[in-house]
């Protein structure tokens, strides 16, 4: 990257942080905000407070540590306001490549030792692929084929935590937070997104959420469509069949000879003829196009408490890769009957965006590295990680594919500014004055390559001069 490009990036980073500072409250928070975001983007194995203090202020590590710790741990600024500003700045950059296509619900786990960090319990941890001590957060991301951005993020509080007043008080859990399942948290996030008027998309869910009929019904009640992953044992009436109706209720007492039984979606798949299966490719991977065999049929799903209005036709999408002994994945979708086969597959597979989000947020930005124990600190750290990630999304196109894994975006001198002069600059320039700019040509939605690891800033001191410390 040449010096001119680096200088432009420095200006855009300063302008971006200035935009965030406009909603952060007191002017004394501007310096810690800038330093925390800088520390998250700098190279380093650990993105907890003390290592970031050593990188962003090597001449006064102790004072910087206390400043950042107070800012993220107890600072009374609003997570929703900062995430709203991130969305305001970054969303136009994403939408230049096409409209928002999906709202993606997911959760992620962070392995933790001990029992005092807020929300820690023995529960399923996706990162480990098993039950273990961890924290779990539920998120909502908006996405198109170019990029995705988390817009809502909340810690799941297990019942043992929600009902323990002593631990709640010590961790600073707000009084209004009660026990809610992950599905209930996700539905509230979707409802919030509808109320805020976010650009609408198809709701994408993995089986952890899509398997629950109540969750799918909740999405429909919000006026949204979905493509929901389900398990092979989900019950449905085969294509062309369904329950008999008597008045407003469904008759489930008909004899077998008069009404077909509910069967598993796996059984529906195994009954399909060879002509029902098509090989479809959905996006370009790092080496070749990703493709598999799919079939789709219209079915009626069996709910625990069926009423006539519950039973509607939905798409059942099935993936059965060549060489596999049985189908491997299933989805239900309330998308229009007229939707194209390839488009349906494309949307079902767009969930890879959230997987890439969490990979980058964990490996490059350190969203799981917070070492405090409180509710506010957990969410403040996550908010700032999402803010840093938003800037990296916007800078993605400025890095040529041939650049090294950790590309230098900002020069050493730019990170050694006096805090007072920097604060003055933040208060005198117009917000986002240089952030929006002309970019390289638009990337086609049909050729979404595997992006290289996010570019990071260069540390103000040489890496081997900084000892990585933990709290």
Main beta sheet: 12 strands, mixed
Overall mean pLDDT: 82
Q: How much helix, percentage-wise, in residues? A: 25-40%
Order of helices and strands: HHHHHEEEEHHHEHHEEEEEHEEEEHHHH
Protein described:
With 471 residues, the protein is of the alpha+beta class. It has helices at 3-21, 30-41, 49-56, 61-73, 79-95, 159-162, 165-171, 182-196, 207-210, 213-221, 265-270, 341-349, 352-363, 375-395, 419-428; strands at 102-111, 121-125, 130-143, 148-155, 202-205, 226-230, 235-237, 244-246, 249-251, 263-264, 278-284, 289-301, 313-319, 329-333. Strands 1, 2, 3, 4, 5, 6, 7, 10, 11, 12, 13 and 14 form a 12-stranded mixed β-sheet that branches. The radius of gyration is 25 Å and the shape is globular.
Quick recap:
The protein has helices at 3-21, 30-41, 49-56, 61-73, 79-95, 159-162, 165-171, 182-196, 207-210, 213-221, 265-270, 341-349, 352-363, 375-395, 419-428; strands at 102-111, 121-125, 130-143, 148-155, 202-205, 226-230, 235-237, 244-246, 249-251, 263-264, 278-284, 289-301, 313-319, 329-333. The chain has 471 residues and is of the alpha+beta class. The strands form two sheets. Strands 1, 2, 3, 4, 5, 6, 7, 10, 11, 12, 13 and 14 form a twelve-stranded mixed beta sheet that branches. The chain has a two-stranded antiparallel ribbon with strand order 8-9.
Explain the layout of strands and helices.
Layout lengths: L2 H19 L8 H12 L7 H8 L4 H13 L5 H17 L6 E10 L9 E5 L4 E14 L4 E8 L3 H4 L2 H7 L10 H15 L5 E4 L1 H4 L2 H9 L4 E5 L4 E3 L6 E3 L2 E3 L11 E2 H6 L7 E7 L4 E13 L11 E7 L9 E5 L7 H9 L2 H12 L11 H21 L23 H10 L43
Parallel strand pairs: 1-5, 5-6
Antiparallel strand pairs: 1-3, 2-3, 3-4, 6-14, 7-10, 7-12, 8-9, 11-12, 12-13, 13-14
